[in-house]
Structure formats: structure tokens, C-alpha cells
Amino acid sequence: MLPSSDARVSTDEPRGVRCDKTRTTLRQNRLPMAMESLEQRALFSWPNAPFDTPNVQEVIYVNQRGNADLPGEKISSPGAVHGYEVSFDDDGRLSIYTRGSLRIELAFYNGPGQPTRANAARSGNSSIKNLYVGPDKDTLYVAVRAQDPAATGTYALYIRGVGQNVVRPLNRAPKANTFSSRTAVTGVNDTDFFSFTTSVTGTWTISVKPEDNDLNATLNVFDSAGNPVVGTFTRPVDAAGNGGNEIFTLTNVRADTTYYVRVDGLGDSTGFYRVYARGAPVVATKVRRR
Ligand SMILES: [Ca+2]
Ligand SMILES: [Ca+2]
Fold first, then answer.
1. How is the chain split into domains, by residue range?
2. What is the side-by-side strand order in the sheet with 246-253?
3. Binning pLDDT at 50, 70 and 90, where does residue 256 land?
4. Which of 88, 93, 99, 183 could form a disulfide with 156 if both were Cys (CB 3.0 to 4.6 A apart)?
5. Which ligand approaches the C-alpha of residue 183 most closely?
């Protein structure tokens, strides 16, 4: 059970141990040693965000629905925290949860510093629900670690965040099978989403061309269900630096398929850019009969 209020920190009790949820009661009635150390660890010993070595930090690139599925995550060194940076373009509710056999402790940070909510797994699964994402496009952090500091292993992490309010359709350009749009990454954690529907079966090239040398663009493409088709939830296409074009070619694409293109500026880079989707139809080849 999770508190619905924005309590500073909440911790689920281990299975079989009964305790009162309020922290004053926890303090007054001294807990068994194991429970107390768990509570204290969950409260006090999370590292500050952003995370650095020996902890890991990755950036999560959510899809147009504000979601990210990370099924193959790993705690590879004992005691390490696996940290994630995540942001949303719009405000709303956020839930995070893990699955797997490794007992997990999960923490949410609404900015740099200490977590605002933390939760320990009853089984392998841990979750923090009803988090509020404000309208300021803040950088948020999620941290995952094994409940047993000596344990290592894999887990799945799921982000269920805030969907993108505005998805711009890419405009059909005069050139056949070409769509494009121009806009700007205007600030830290401003993310732009575009959609287009393929007009031919064949090869489709999606590109981002910065018009400002300050913009280090990154590119992700998701299908209509939110599955990554270009880049992953933690790795965009980012071959070029500031001012450089990002290009990715998809082969064997069917006509009438809708894709969602995510453009972001790496770090806090900003600037205007154009985004293109260009289709090259499959050329029919005659099959010779002998
Ligand atoms: Ca923008
Ligand atoms: Ca780039």
C-alpha cells in the first residue's frame, strides 16, 4: 500500500512484519533491528542526484505517451545505485515500477539532491505511484538498487509518465514522398514530437538538420504503439555534435504506417532545426522464369 499524499519518504514494510505507517509511531515504538535498518537505509542513505561513479546514470528518452520500458536493466556491482535522468514536456501524473526476482529499492527525486519518495520491494517488485510532474520541464531522477547490498542481478524498470500534449504532424513537402517541419528546441527538457504516415512502401530516411550551431540534436523514432524503432529508451541516434545532422534510414517500411519522431537537444543545447522524413519506393524487379 502506498500513501497517496506527497509524504517526504514512504517505505513498505517487509512481508510478515507489521508496523504502523506513521513515522512518529515508528520512532516511539522501537523497531526490530532488521526493520529499523531497512527504514533508515531507505530514508537516509540514497546518494544525491545527479549520480556519479561508482553509481550509474543513464538518460531516459520517453515515447510520445510519456512511457519507457527498460526490461533488461542490471545492478552489476554490489551496493551500486542505477540512476536515471528523465523529463517530460508536459505536466501530469507519473508512476514508476520494477519487475523481476531481484528485491529492489526504488527512489524518486523531483530534482537534484535527495529523493522525495522511496520504496522497498515486498517481493521482486517495487513501485512508486501518483508522482506529480510539474509544468516546468524539470529534470527528474529515478534510482534503483538491490535491497540486499551484496546482491547483483537484473530487473525491469517501467516509467508511466505524461504523454506529449502536442505532436506536430510533419508537413508534406512539394517533393514526392517527403515530409518536413521546422521548429526549435527552446530550453532544457523541451522535447518536440512529430508524426508522419508513410506514403510508399520502401526505404524511409529520417533526418534532423540543426540551423543553429548551438543545437546538438538527438533523434528517436517510435511506432504508433510507442515501441522504439530508431534509437532506444536510453540511447537516441546522436552521431553528430553541435550543428551536425542526425540521419537514420529504415528499410522495408510499409506504406500507411505512422511513426512518431522525437527531437531533443543533448544536455542543455537549444536551437532551430528542420526535421525530414523521405521515402524511396521499392523498385519492382521482374522475376525471370527459365
Ligand atoms: Ca520545441
Ligand atoms: Ca547530435
1. 23-160, 167-281
2. 171-172, 178-185, 271-281, 202-210, 246-253
3. very high
4. 99
5. 1
